[in-house]
Specification:
With 715 residues, the protein is α+β, with helices and mostly antiparallel strands. It has six domains: 2-37 and 266-305; 70-200, PAS domain (Beta-Lactamase), CATH 3.30.450.20; 201-262, no CATH class; 354-459, Beta-Lactamase, CATH 3.30.450; 470-551, Orthogonal Bundle (Helix Hairpins); 558-709, Heat Shock Protein 90 (2-Layer Sandwich). The strands form five sheets. A six-stranded antiparallel sheet has the order 3-2-1-6-5-4. Strands 12-11-15-14-13 form a five-stranded antiparallel sheet, sandwiched between helices. Strands 17-19-20-22-21 form a five-stranded mixed sheet, covered by helices on one side. The two termini are 69 Å apart. It has 20 helices and 22 strands. The chain is flat. InterPro entries: CHASE4 (IPR007892), HAMP_dom (IPR003660), HATPase_C_sf (IPR036890), HATPase_dom (IPR003594), His_kinase_dom (IPR005467), HisK_dim/P_dom (IPR003661), HisK_dim/P_sf (IPR036097), PAS (IPR000014). Its EC number is 2.7.13.3.
Length: 715
């Protein structure tokens, strides 16, 4: 058996290692592919930098030729060939200074008026490229109108050349055109070297009209369709190259450039992944070996010991042997069960003790206290639970009178009156409350002999304190819920009776205060004003209580309508401005541009915002700021009210949203309020199908937020 289990463990370990290896390999290849993509993106970026350097050179030449061609002196020179213009403006050093190798003035007839070619490094004159003059004769470099210009490359025998052609106009860019001004700059080795330094890259350039290496020939097809393409290919393990083409003045590919870069990113990523891959494989292998070793040592070797023990007991038929395993685990419990089984087999051979053992095992398994007493109420036998409750062993408990037995005499003797059972022979049961307050369910069953004579009583006792307490709490909860519903329904139905007399008090006090019925002295006016203010405060309190009662009674209905959000928020701000102005508090409202209208109960929405903004002002410091922000969150609008006020202590935060709860105690109350505002806010938001939450730190202020559906889908 041990060999079979060991082999199975080995196979499972190998399978797990194989799966891990496959997972590591897949992850390695996937990450390596990611590094390849990163390398390509990096190379694209570097090649674009080279392209930008070349384009900058061409743009510079285009700018210079335009500057010279649109000049009144140049415009006049084409007409009169003024030698002074040549002497002053067309010096070799001038062309060398602006990095122009060739300058050609051509009139409208296509005739070359003036030409100069210099070496920009030495400022010495150089031969004019014949192919360039031939292209002028063919008209390939001549502009056709005032808005025409030519820019690109031409492949000369000497070197490729940047070409820029512009019509000759006045300084005000007015015509008619008197010809074409042509500037040329050789794309020679020196310029290529400057590009290498600027872009910090290795560059190779080949002309499209000459033989080029195989890798360039393979890429020219890509540039035939789109010269703006960048082709990136690894050259070898250590270098990657980016290819791009440059057009001639006809729009055909003239040059192909290759920028070479070291593959540091990819090689570093590959090395890192390889290290991780082999480390994980090694870790998996070591873990597998370790697991196999631990399983062999902790379990399989012990299973071998169990197998050897069982084989030895069966062969020797010695049931007195016992298996001893260390560690309190499943194998230990298995050994314990084996030993128990041997005990049971051994006891089965003892016929006189078989029945007693069976009853003991059965009754010991009960959670109830079970005691068997004789006619003198002396204990004959007790189960494990009863013995533990009496804190004594069975041998010590046998013969003890139940009336003096510690702990269980009360529920088993006094309440059930066991002596009467021996007379009537009837089973008795009932609940008994002990002096410590615990409730017991006790039962006494008479046990007769074969002739029907009662020889003893089997008594059981079960602790039902928790069940009775649960029943009591459930009953009290049901009574409280009924009372709460009755209260809410009563208050909701009494809204008219409560509001009508109070409105009358407020109305008549306001009439008196306004001296409708005659003049009042100062004390009378002050008293009437106090009556009006107190009545209005009481009316607000009653309104909040009635609203809360309506919600709890399920009688509050929402009147959905569409309204403008920003306008409504600003209206509430205007309502609260007098209160805010007393503390010099600024109210800042910000609404997302795309959030114009929402559909909700307009009056209840105003009630929500008034409560939140009023609280923010109330708990803000002097010269504070209250920020209100509304933004779209999917199909919901989220509105936050934030202040930098006193904040809420962590131990007081649990009181929020509970009716009649405030963070100030009544004895030290600093801020007015009933404690109903936030509770109503939560109830009304929930009726809309939204949620309310908050965040607060003491001394740093509070943020209250809620969401409601924008289009009132909860309706």
């Amino acid at each position: 058996m041990a060999i079979d289990i060991s082999k199975k463990v080995l196979i499972i370990t190998l399978l797990i290692f194989t799966v891990l290896t496959a997972s590591f390999t897949f992850t390695h290849n996937m990450q390596l592919s990611n590094f390849l993509e990163l390398e390509r993106a990096d190379t694209f970026e570097n090649v674009e930098r080279v392209q930008n350097a070349v384009a900058t050179e061409q743009s510079y030449l285009d700018y210079i030729v335009q500057d010279w061609a649109c000049w009144d002196d140049t415009y006049q020179f084409i007409e009169d060939k003024n030698p002074e213009y040549i002497r002053v403006d067309l010096q070799n050093q001038t062309l060398s200074g602006i990095n122009v190798n060739v300058m050609i003035f051509v009139n409208n007839s296509g005739k070359v008026v003036y030409v100069k070619s210099v070496n920009t490094s030495t400022a010495e004159e150089a031969p004019v490229p014949r192919k360039l003059l031939a292209m002028i004769e063919d008209g390939g470099l001549l502009t056709e109108g005032e808005n025409d210009s030519i820019s690109g490359f031409v492949l000369l025998d000497e070197d490729p050349m940047f070409i820029a052609c512009h019509p000759i106009l006045t300084t005000k860019y007015e015509g008619p055109s008197r010809g074409t001004l042509i500037f040329g700059r050789y794309f020679d080795d020196a310029l290529l070297e400057s590009f290498k330094k600027v872009t910090r890259s290795s560059l190779l350039m080949y002309r499209a009209d000459e033989e080029m290496p195989q890798d360039f020939q393979n890429k020219i097809k890509n540039f035939s369709q789109n010269s703006d393409n960048i082709v990136v290919d690894p050259l070898n393990k250590n270098q990657i190259a980016g290819y791009f083409g440059l057009k001639d003045i006809k729009g055909d590919i003239a040059l192909i450039l290759r920028a070479d870069f070291p593959r540091e990113l990819y090689l570093h990523g590959e090395r890192t992944l390889n290290y991780m891959y082999f480390f994980l494989l090694l870790t998996g292998l070591m873990t597998g070996v370790g697991v196999k070793f631990v399983l062999d040592k902790l379990f399989i070797s012990r299973l071998v010991e169990v197998d050897d023990f069982v084989t030895r007991v069966r062969s020797e038929k010695d049931l007195s042997q016992r298996l001893s395993l260390e560690d309190n685990d499943e194998l230990y419990r298995l050994s314990r069960e084996i030993n128990g089984m041997l005990n049971e087999i051994y006891l089965a051979e003892q016929e006189l003790k078989a029945q007693a053992r069976e009853k003991k095992v059965l009754l010991d398994s009960l959670n109830e206290l079970a005691v068997f007493v004789d006619t003198e109420l002396k204990i004959i036998w007790a189960n494990k639970a009863a013995l533990e409750y009496m804190n004594m062993g069975l041998e010590k408990a046998i013969g003890v009178c139940l009336k003096v037995a510690p702990g269980i005499s009360g529920p088993l003797v006094e309440h059930l009156n066991l002596e009467e059972i021996f007379t009537t022979g009837e089973k008795k049961s009932g609940e008994y409350t002990a002096q410590d307050g615990r409730v017991w369910f006790a039962q006494a069953i008479p046990v007769p002999d074969e002739q029907g004579k009662i020889i003893g009583i089997l008594q059981t006792c079960r602790d039902v304190t928790e069940r009775k307490e649960a029943e009591r709490l459930l009953h009290e909860k049901q009574i409280a819920e009924i009372a709460n519903r009755t209260k809410s329904e009563f208050l909701a139905n009494m809204s008219h009776e409560l509001r009508t007399p109070l409105n009358s008090i407020i109305g008549f006090s306001d009439l008196l205060y306004e001296k409708v019925y005659g003049e009042l002295n100062e004390k009378q006016a002050r008293a009437v004003g106090n009556i009006s203010r107190s009545g209005k405060h009481l009316l607000n309190l009653i309104n909040d209580i009635l609203d809360l009662s309506k919600v709890e009674a399920g009688k509050m209905e929402l009147d959905y309508k569409e309204f403008e959000l920003a306008g409504k928020l600003n209206a509430i701000k205007s309502l609260l401005s007098p209160i805010a102005d007393r503390k010099n508090i600024e109210i800042d409202i910000e609404v997302d541009k795309g959030l114009t209208h929402i559909r909700a109960d307009e009056a209840r929405f105003v009630q929500i915002m008034y409560n939140l903004m009023d609280n923010a002002i109330k708990f803000s410091h002097e010269n504070g700021l209250v920020k209100v922000r509304a933004e779209r969150k999917g199909d919901l609008v989220e509105i936050t009210v934030k202040d930098k006020g006193i904040g809420i202590k962590e131990e007081d935060q649990c009181k929020l949203f509970k009716p009649f709860s405030q963070v100030d105690s009544f004895s030290s109350k600093t801020f007015q309020g009933t404690g109903l505002g936030l509770s109503l806010v939560k109830q009304i938001v929930n009726l809309h199908g939204g949620e309310v939450w908050f965040n607060s730190k003491i001394g740093e202020g509070s943020t209250f937020a809620f969401t409601v559906p924008i289009d009132g889908n909860n309706n």
